[in-house]
UniProtKB/TrEMBL annotation:
Its EC number is 1.3.1.12. Keywords: Amino-acid biosynthesis, Aromatic amino acid biosynthesis, NAD, Oxidoreductase, Tyrosine biosynthesis. This is Prephenate dehydrogenase. It comes from Streptococcus mitis. The lineage of its organism: Bacteria, Bacillati, Bacillota, Bacilli, Lactobacillales. One of its GO terms (biological process) is tyrosine biosynthetic process. It catalyses: prephenate + NAD(+) = 3-(4-hydroxyphenyl)pyruvate + CO2 + NADH. Coiled coil: none annotated. Pathway: Amino-acid biosynthesis; L-tyrosine biosynthesis; (4-hydroxyphenyl)pyruvate from prephenate (NAD(+) route): step 1/1. One of its GO terms (molecular function) is prephenate dehydrogenase (NADP+) activity. Residues 3-293 form the Prephenate/arogenate dehydrogenase domain.
Length: 367
């Protein structure tokens, strides 16, 4: 039976979600809310949604499923507003927030006793691009789509949500909201603090040591990439997961002090173990199985500095879907190849490796 789905927030996540739902459920009606007219117009023009509004409450009573793809504070405000609206009995309400405890707690507070169902959710996918114009039906492919069930969630709720979102081609997983926030504080939230701190430190240092800017490549580039993330979103994330993130900061300070003391004492064995343990631990992590946030597959090609060499490789890859191409031209230290090509799935990666290896004598490395 066809359903009516209401997506509040037509940014990259919400608009891409609409495309994924349309892929497997073309008969579903998708309604969209967005404050800015530009994203509403794009979503309508591109067929992502069927109808749009800038009045959130107006479409809510029509929906069988409501997805709040909004900043955390606005998500909580809309949950509170939904509690006072005349919604369909049994409507499913979900969200797409990067922290879960505050949102799930708000739902259990404001929606308790209402004839609705709620399940927290966090699609762990994203891009440096923003807005409906950047929507991608494959954005969530192979990425984790995390559900954080609450007292307002039943097993039928999860099954309905998984069916609704089947066209996203994501990996569905369930976890407690508080545990979600503990885990993401370590592997997502805290790394953003580190990246921004490193950028700030380097910017100040470069005022007296100008060459620091020029030599910043390789590991520095990779470690600070996420420092370009949207500041408003990250302010909201940190303040909604405050206690856990503060614990991670204190823990890291202790670890920095330990290695600092080892350097001060000239303890060669402790320093070697510090690096070796980190290397072994990273090699053992799931990060190499491509189940996490970015879900891209990287291939590095060590190409000579010759005219048209990159065009030659791209010609070999004609018909293969590329996520990104990066030329590591400033400094070859700590990189696997001067040309870095990212793919969305393992099949395209393997095909590219075969084509380049068979048709050139360039060194190809997969990481």
């Amino acid at each position: 039976m066809a359903k009516t789905v209401y997506i509040a927030g037509l940014g990259l996540i919400g608009a891409s979600m609409a495309l994924g739902i349309k892929r497997d459920h073309p008969d579903y009606e998708i309604l969209g809310y967005n404050r800015s007219q530009a994203s509403r117009d794009i979503a309508l023009k591109e067929g992502m949604i069927d109808r749009a509004t800038d009045d959130f409450a107006s479409f809510a009573p029509l929906a069988d499923i409501i997805i709040l793809s909004l900043p955390i504070k606005q998500t909580i405000a809309f949950i509170k507003e939904l509690a006072d609206l005349d919604l369909k009995e049994g409507v499913i309400i979900s969200d797409a927030g990067s922290t879960k405890s505050a949102i799930v707690d708000a739902a259990e507070q404001y929606l308790a006793g209402k004839p609705v169902r709620f399940v927290g959710a966090h699609p762990m996918a994203g891009s440096h691009k923003t807005g409906a114009a950047s929507a991608d039906v494959n954005l969530f492919e192979n990425a984790y789509y995390i559900f954080t069930p609450s007292s307002l969630t039943g097993q039928d709720t999860l099954e309905e949500m998984k069916d609704l979102l089947s066209g996203l081609h994501a990996r569905f997983i369930e976890i407690d909201a508080k545990e979600h926030d503990r885990v993401t504080s370590q592997i997502s939230h805290f790394p953003h603090i580190l990246a921004s701190s490193l950028m700030e430190q380097t910017a100040v240092y470069a005022q007296e040591h100008e060459m620091a800017r020029r030599f910043a490549a390789g590991g520095f580039r990779d470690m600070t990439r996420i420092a370009e993330s949207e500041p408003g979103m990250w302010t909201s994330i940190l303040l909604s997961n405050r206690e856990t993130i503060l614990e991670r900061i204190e823990d890291f300070k202790e670890r920095l002090d330990e290695v600092g003391q080892a350097i001060s004492k000239g303890d060669e064995e402790q320093i070697w173990n510090f690096f070796n343990q980190a290397r072994e631990q990273r090699q053992a992590m799931e990060i190499h199985k491509r189940g996490g946030v970015d879900s891209s597959y990287d291939l590095y090609v060590d190409v000579p500095d010759e005219e048209d060499v990159i065009l030659r490789i791209l010609e070999l890859l004609r018909g293969t879907s590329l996520v990104n191409i990066h030329i590591n031209e400033e400094n070859r230290e700590d990189i696997h190849g001067i040309l870095q090509i990212s793919f969305k799935n393992a099949q395209d990666l393997e095909r590219a490796e075969h084509l380049i290896t068979e048709n050139t004598d360039y060194t190809v490395v997969i990481k």
